[in-house]
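Structure (tokenized):
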């Protein structure tokens, strides 16, 4: 993932034959938070039909079963993937590793499934042993700054934060909304201790690779995503090739999605060159 500027492709088929497995981002690749992207789903289904395996990797702060139910509702067909791993799965594993400690949940009620079936005790912020941050309580209007007062209280008590979704922003239809990563980043910048459960950190990739049959070698795996902060960084750290999609959360950062500014992209890649660039995933 270094060297010459990567080619800009129009068809995934040009690249797909070089790989046995795809580790694909979800939000921004196969759906936009409201509806599935039919061409992307078709491309992954065709890759699977030719013998490839697809594991979807998402920073959604919910267990895989809840994510599957959600993307079913968006119209993502089951034929597009073999399995899903989520930062919610990693978050649950971390919670299990801290038995007997009380939790303050910072996030919306829709993320409560992350705690389902776990032996946890919740407590108010001023008495909790640590914080599980899954998102903003009202991401339609809030930013991380709305939580600064609570973060200052946490910092004063040296409370640990487990971030269940390292994404800073995601697409919801035509808009970008803030995620738990924005709050976690602010807390970390204030001096707080944060553990990020999802991409670009290794535990979620190890879980995804464990779901692949036959454990293909890393040089036969391709990561696909639209985030430089999580997807590109995660692929680079893992040591697999990366396909960068320009029409996702960075759509307005590098010119237009269908005609990206190569100089701006090269600067953003900072030597961590993807294998190729596409606007959206299309077979």
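Design, position by position:
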């Amino acid at each position: 993932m270094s060297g010459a500027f990567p080619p800009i492709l129009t068809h995934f088929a040009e690249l797909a034959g070089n790989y046995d497995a795809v580790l694909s981002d979800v939000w921004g690749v196969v759906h936009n938070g409201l509806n599935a992207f039919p061409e992307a789903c078709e491309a992954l289904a065709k890759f699977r039909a030719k013998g490839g395996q697809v594991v979807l990797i998402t920073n959604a702060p919910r267990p895989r079963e809840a994510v599957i139910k959600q993307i079913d509702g968006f119209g993502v067909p089951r034929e597009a993937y073999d399995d899903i791993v989520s930062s919610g799965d990693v978050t649950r594993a971390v919670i299990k590793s801290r038995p007997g400690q009380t939790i303050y949940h910072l996030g919306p009620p829709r993320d409560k499934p992350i705690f389902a079936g776990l032996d946890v005790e919740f407590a108010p912020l001023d008495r909790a042993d640590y914080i599980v941050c899954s998102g903003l309580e009202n991401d339609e209007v809030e930013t991380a700054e709305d939580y600064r007062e609570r973060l200052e209280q946490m910092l004063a008590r040296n409370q640990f934060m487990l971030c269940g979704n390292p994404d800073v922003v995601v697409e919801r239809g035509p808009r970008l909304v803030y995620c738990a990563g924005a709050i976690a980043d602010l807390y970390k910048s204030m001096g707080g201790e944060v553990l990020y459960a999802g991409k670009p950190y290794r535990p979620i990739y190890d879980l995804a690779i464990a779901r692949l049959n036959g454990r293909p070698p890393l040089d036969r795996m391709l990561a696909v995503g639209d985030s430089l902060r999580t997807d590109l960084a995660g692929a680079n750290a893992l040591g697999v090739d990366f396909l960068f999609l320009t029409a996702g959360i960075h759509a307005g950062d590098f010119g237009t999605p269908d005609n990206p500014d190569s100089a701006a992209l090269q600067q953003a890649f900072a030597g961590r060159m993807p294998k190729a660039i596409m606007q959206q995933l299309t077979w």
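Reviewer-requested clarification: The mean pLDDT is 92. The longest strand covers residues 53-58.
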